[in-house]
Design a protein that fits this description.
By secondary structure, this protein is an alpha/beta fold. The chain is built from 5 helices and 7 strands. It comes from Pseudazoarcus pumilus.
Length: about 140
């Protein structure tokens, strides 16, 4: 489990492509504006939501297995009890990290991800941490 600023900074610095599981098309939803913030800061965003074909002008995929590009980070905006299958998919697609957003804690998901070498973060917001560590003020 990643908990130090140094490890968080390294993870974010070495991440380029982020699959956002549960990304909403609604701009007022955290999954949407967090993804847009990360996109504005140079990350490639890949929406994953089975209910949509496109979000924010980007192709949206029904599952991680359907994404046609390599994913560095799987950023999850789903209830904790829904995250273990997502952790399994993150492992299957060869992601490098699993980030469960603020308020999401799943020991089982962390165990699944870490057993296969994925860096794991829980209960932190990727936008807030990026802004804090790299000097961009949060909105």
């Amino acid at each position: 489990m990643i908990t130090t600023d140094s490890a968080l900074r390294d993870l974010l610095a070495n991440t380029r492509t982020i699959a956002v599981v549960g990304m909403s098309p609604k701009p007022e939803r955290p999954s949407h504006y967090v993804a847009q913030y990360m996109r504005e800061h140079g990350y490639t965003i890949v929406p994953v939501n089975p209910g949509h074909r496109e979000i924010a002008g980007l192709p949206c995929y029904p599952s991680l297995r359907d994404v046609p590009v390599a994913i560095d980070m799987v950023n999850v905006f789903r209830r904790a009890e829904d995250t273990p299958p997502i952790a399994h998919e993150a492992v299957l697609i060869g992601a490098k990290s699993l980030w469960l957003q603020l308020g999401i804690v799943s020991a089982e998901s962390a165990r699944i991800a870490e057993a296969d070498g994925l860096a794991t973060v829980m209960d932190l917001c990727v936008k807030v941490e990026h802004a804090r560590l790299f000097g961009s003020p949060p909105d």
